[in-house]
Design brief:
Blueprint lengths: L1 E6 L2 E8 L13 E7 L2 E5 L2 E5 L4 E4 L5 E5 L3 E8 L14 H14 L11 H18 L4 H24 L12 H12 L9 H7 L4 H12 L3 H19 L4 H7 L5 H12 L3 H7 L15
Antiparallel strand pairs: 1-2, 2-8, 3-6, 3-8, 4-5, 4-7
Helix pairs in contact: 1-3, 1-7, 2-3, 5-6
């Protein structure tokens, strides 16, 4: 096993396994997994899919995941940690932009197994970017850190555009109406702009009547529009509470809550615990399935 800790905002691990050994799951951010060699199946919440050389997976915070190996497999794990958004004043990259991009991935990924990259060119890009990161990480120099952070930002951009184009966001997979995919993407991209999420704004953006928007959304997503928007905001609240130094006032203002009291009451209603308890437990709720459920 070779473990490379390039810098605290992220960790890199190269490892070859003949059988999968369950690793402790840290509930901070997510991992990008590259299969350099080998084959087998990946399992998340009892959903399985095959993998082979070149497969690229995204592991958001979750409790139930594993790899069943058919032959010795070489893994590269690239873990984004919460410190990437804390005490990073030396970074040349705008950490607020980093946070926004990473939060988009984390709050929209649906925690199902499978290769996240469907475009061969993007796969080649990621393979080259990860190779450079591995090489630079071994240098452990301050000059390498700036370059690595820039490469990580490029990786985020590639992941985001693949999530937007694929079935990885929370869109019903048997749905053939492209409007709902576009609507969910629109909501995610404008979640911090309450005026754009009003019924009239959505109706105008998607050429629907205001009375039809709510009916259409509930039929497609099996959840009322207002509830979906609230939960989407609270997912970002969870991310900010665990991975940033934003105050409750800043979080409430940025996401369109009336004040801290409104945020706290809404959080307790939908998450089931208080913000204080959540921060003490340091465990995602809306962002993570707490237990595995077998597919019927």
């Amino acid at each position: 096993m070779q473990v490379i800790e390039a810098y605290k905002p992220f960790e890199i691990q190269e490892i070859e396994l003949s059988e999968w050994k369950q690793r402790p799951v840290k509930n901070n951010f997510f991992e990008l997994v590259l299969i350099k060699e080998g084959e087998g199946t990946q399992c998340i919440n009892y959903n399985e899919t095959s993998f082979g050389k070149g497969s690229i997976f995204l592991l958001p915070p979750l409790k139930c995941h594993s790899f069943n190996l058919s032959k010795p497999t070489q893994f590269v794990f690239l873990k984004f940690t919460d410190t990437i958004f804390k005490a990073t004043n030396r970074m040349a990259i705008d950490r607020n932009e980093w946070f926004k991009e990473s939060a988009y991935i984390l709050s929209n990924y649906n925690q199902l197994p499978g290769d996240i990259i469907k475009n061969d060119m993007d796969r080649q890009h990621l393979d080259k970017l990860i190779a450079i990161i591995l090489q630079e990480s071994r240098n452990h120099s301050s000059e390498s850190i700036t370059l690595i952070m820039s490469l990580m930002a490029s990786i985020l951009e590639i992941l985001i555009r693949n999530i937007k184009k694929g079935i990885f966001s929370e869109v019903p997979q048997n749905n053939s109406d492209e409007r709902i995919t576009k609507m969910l993407t629109y909501i995610s991209e404008n979640i911090d702009k309450p005026e754009l999420l009003k019924i009239d704004s959505l109706a105008n953006a998607f050429s629907m009547s205001p009375t039809y928007v709510s009916e259409f959304f509930k039929k497609q997503v099996n959840m009322p529009l207002r509830e979906y928007i609230i939960k989407a905001k609270l997912k970002l609240v969870e991310i900010r509470l665990l991975n940033s130094d934003f105050t409750l006032t800043e979080i409430a203002d940025d996401l369109g809550f009336t004040d801290v009291s409104h945020l706290s009451k809404t959080f307790k209603r939908y998450v089931g615990i208080s913000i204080r308890e959540f921060k003490n437990n340091r465990e995602y709720h809306l962002l993570k399935r707490s237990a595995c459920t077998v597919n019927s």
